[in-house]
Automatic annotation (TrEMBL):
A UniProt-annotated Pfam family: Abhydro_lipase
Taxonomic lineage: Eukaryota, Fungi, Dikarya, Ascomycota, Saccharomycotina
InterPro entries for this protein: AB_hydrolase_fold, AB_hydrolase_lipase
Gene3D superfamilies in alphabetical order: alpha/beta hydrolase
Keywords (A to Z) from UniProt: Hydrolase, Membrane, Transmembrane, Transmembrane helix
Keyword Transit peptide: no
Any GO BP: lipid metabolic process
Organism from which the protein derives: Cyberlindnera jadinii (strain ATCC 18201 / CBS 1600 / BCRC 20928 / JCM 3617 / NBRC 0987 / NRRL Y-1542)
Protein name from the UniProt record: Alpha/beta-hydrolase
Limits of the Partial AB-hydrolase lipase domain: 77-137
GO molecular function: hydrolase activity
Membrane-spanning parts: 22-48
Amino acid sequence: MSTSVDHREWDYSKSKQRVFNVTSHICTFLFLNVLFTFAVFNAILQWLKSLFVRLNRKETPTDPKSKAELKLIPDLNYYFRLYGLQVNTYDVTTDDGYVLTIQRIIDPQESAEDRAKRLPILCVHGLLQSSGSFCSSGKQSLAYYFHQQGYDVWLGNNRCGFEAKHTFLSPSDHKMWDWDIIDMAQKDLPALIEHVLISCDSQAESVTLVCHSQGTTQGFITLDSDKFGLSSKINCFVALSPAVFGGELLEKRLFIRFIAWMSLKKFFFGINSFIPFAMTMRKYIGTSKAYCQLSYMMFNYLFDWNDTLWDQDLKCRHFLFSPVYVSMKLMAWWLNSKEGFNQSKAILEPKKQWFDSTTPPIFLVIPTQDLLVDGRSLVGHMKSYEPECRYSYIYLENYSHLDVLWSKSVIDDVGVPIINFLESEVYK
Ligand SMILES: *[C@@H]1O[C@H](CO)[C@@H](O)[C@H](O)[C@H]1NC(C)=O
Ligand SMILES: *[C@@H]1O[C@H](CO)[C@@H](O)[C@H](O)[C@H]1NC(C)=O
Ligand SMILES: *[C@@H]1O[C@H](CO)[C@@H](O)[C@H](O)[C@H]1NC(C)=O
């Protein structure tokens, strides 16, 4: 894999940019209409199926929620204040000028002495997700649990995300969107880690990195041969739904194939962000039940995951913080580049050793129902090609891609094993 992105090709004349902007609006509009129609039919089928399933299923009761907790407010701080905590937000600027948002969970009552005892955990989200994905379930989330276990929890966001901010580029400038996963691994991840190490009160020299999906891809790209010199600053790498090998869905789902095919034809989705209309919707009607149902329907259809394991009271909270802005170039990297998941291939060269004894310990959390990425192949790779790397893994039966964050038993099934691994491998 190349270690830098070719930014030269991203030079389009003003007239070409205008043409792409107009055609992409029309094409995206048509695309969303067709997708919506299919998603509605799928939702009707799912509903009929669930009528039958519900008859045979006993709902496990969940914690009762207060009225305040059930409100839909697109602000993590609102929910954490209900528990006497605070979510502080900071800006971090990357080497190439992108302004990232990082958040930290703070107990305002805590003494400076106690705060200095907390060791840092940095969480990095998946594709189209944000920092919200680690804590939108409040008390039932991994971020909250890590904080309760005595860690200093930081929640990173990759470039553009909630709001595309740069030191001198503006979102309407196509140069703002000239990046893919290599930039995110090479620039965003080090900037986030550096910020945590400088700002944490414990004076730790390394962080525990907990990533989901595409966040794990950033981690794996970085740790492969310690490409960007970050290994010594990471004391443990926890990979939830690790995205190294592509899953079967990428070939099976017609719409994903279509996005893959069109991702290189600039007239269709344009050269800026991927379907910006979705974020406009979230901005204006993101706190309505209708938006939540619509988002769920689309994602359920596209990625085949469902809410069976989630706490229904919290379902709409997850969609307050997703989707977010990503570049079209990133989508093309994933679906139609030599390095990405084109034809379900792997993002690192298979049948080769990626890690050595200086690689931090790795903990893999593999949901076995995940059709988007193929975690079993990764475990197979670790067993066959990584004799020097300390690693462990768990398979979660019944779990799918997002259940590793949003299942109502995520603390018992995912949180506890992570903390156990940290205590046995890192903080012995
Ligand atoms: C993606 O896969 C298709 C089908 O095998 C192939 O024709 C195409 O060249 C691949 N694209 C890239 C960029 O590798
Ligand atoms: C939800 O997804 C799981 C696989 O992750 C599947 O076994 C189950 O049947 C699905 N439930 C519904 C109601 O579609
Ligand atoms: C997975 O689901 C099946 C069917 O609902 C259940 O019998 C089984 O105990 C579940 N497995 C785990 C590990 O929870």
